[in-house]
């Protein structure tokens, strides 16, 4: 079942689902210390950094509405293309690195049906490390008009929690929100055999907007 609104409104900002366990305690602590600082200014030493942290988290967990791009295969993540690798089975892996400053919500590259969502335990190496393929991750498979599409959300040194929004059997629209990686990391999408990537290493991507193929 879709969780997105039927008519996206570009420019409208919401907070990502799944951030409450991190955000609410910070907001509560900032509010409490701000009130206490009115009675005793020494509390301002705690209130000021907590208020700044709250503002930073509101920015980090922003989730803007977007109109999907026109390409067949859309970027699942905001970030920078880290690598483009041919795979032994004929597919091409496009790896997108997400920094803590990027939007952390990931989106479906194509419309289709979620056939599986698998959590794979692992480590927490920095996402730009070549050994991060063994990190904690969630592996998605979507049945689409191009066949099976594999997408992998990979946790990093800071991002230690991946929050899927959908489960196997769900219908998904192209560009629809599918999950969250808290504080950025890496997302890999595997283009089917015969689909040439339209992006290059170092190129910036916008989730649900940037096209990954020439179709």
What's the gist of this structure?
By secondary structure, the chain is α+β, with helices and mostly antiparallel strands. The protein is 17% helix and 31% strand.
Low-confidence stretches: none
Shape: elongated
Reading the helices and strands in chain order gives EHHEEEEEEEEEEEE
The main β sheet shows up as: 8 strands, antiparallel
Strand content: 25-35%
Structural class: alpha+beta
Provide a descriptive summary of the structure in words:
The chain is α+β, with helices and mostly antiparallel strands. The protein contains two helices and 13 strands, in the order E-H-H-E-E-E-E-E-E-E-E-E-E-E-E. It has helices spanning 20-39, 44-60; strands at 13-15, 62-64, 79-86, 92-97, 105-107, 112-120, 137-144, 147-154, 162-164, 171-172, 177-181, 186-191, 204-205.
SSE order and pairing:
Blueprint: E1 13-15, H1 20-39, H2 44-60, E2 62-64, E3 79-86, E4 92-97, E5 105-107, E6 112-120, E7 137-144, E8 147-154, E9 162-164, E10 171-172, E11 177-181, E12 186-191, E13 204-205
